[in-house]
């Protein structure tokens, strides 16, 4: 497989074409950004850790019957994925109050929710990714009513499976963001990444934060936290 031209560069990843149709080559970068790009840093090793953690999680999800764009891990910081047209809706699922939900609703961080809550955000950097309702999604023609239900159901299924994986290794899944895309046949596939950049993960005992909040809130060494998550999930760090 040959790496082709650069198609897209985002905050955390570069996407390249390949010589195989509909297969993309993803390179995870060492950049860390928060607050819609206002806070930035280069953190050596972060790209490799997120690539390995995302690959492990997508493999585990595929094993649990949840299809995604993930094809295979290529190297420490690269993976192959199926090309999809990303739906510009960030789907956030929450089990414990934290982050923007704590702020928006005046709730205490750490409050356990009686049932998982799914939220939708419009993926638009210029607008600062505003929270939106299902009616907004329909009005903006980002997805149909049936597709929105599919996004919600898939998010809840991913949540159920991920809660189990993390619980087994002593980690609470507080919340996470996922993205979806449509393949050539219009089928909706889980896409993008699932890593400590996109999840809140707390040590079940100590409640220590093992995710990007370490960077957002200057709580210590980010790669130490991500390495711990990789090790807990059974991955190797080279
Ligand atoms: O900031 P907020 O509390 O809304 O974030 C909820 C979850 O979604 C967190 O796990 C956060 O890391 C993730 N997220 C993300 N990308 C964004 C916004 C939130 O991965 N653009």
From TrEMBL:
* Coiled-coil annotated spans: none
Gene3D superfamilies of this UniProt entry?
ATP-grasp fold, B domain, Phosphorylase Kinase, domain 1
Regions that span the bilayer: none
- A Pfam match is SAICAR_synt
Report which superkingdom the organism of origin falls in: Bacteria
Q: Residue limits of the SAICAR synthetase/ADE2 N-terminal domain?
A: 6-229
Indicate the enzyme's highest-level EC class.
ligase
Q: Which pathway?
A: Purine metabolism; IMP biosynthesis via de novo pathway; 5-amino-1-(5-phospho-D-ribosyl)imidazole-4-carboxamide from 5-amino-1-(5-phospho-D-ribosyl)imidazole-4-carboxylate: step 1/2
> So what family is this one in?
Belongs to the SAICAR synthetase family.
Q: What is this protein called?
A: Phosphoribosylaminoimidazole-succinocarboxamide synthase
* Organism in which the protein naturally occurs: Planococcus shenhongbingii
Taxonomic lineage of this organism? Answer: Bacteria, Bacillati, Bacillota, Bacilli, Bacillales
Question: Gene name, please?
Answer: purC
